[in-house]
Amino acid sequence: MSTVTAEIPLHEQVQSFVRTPRKMLISGRWHDAASGNYLLHNFGFSVSCA
Asked: What secondary structure, in 3-state letters, does 22-48 show?
């Protein structure tokens, strides 16, 4: 089975928004949202890759 992919151009404002670092408010404190490490380590979430 083959897969076809196509690149979809994104508007410059969308690209800028997605690239901007964000924060998450967790338990009354702001944390960087990029890695998710706070959630993994402090709330017992586990990640499995198949």
From this structure: CEEEECCEEEECCCCHHHHHHCCCCCC
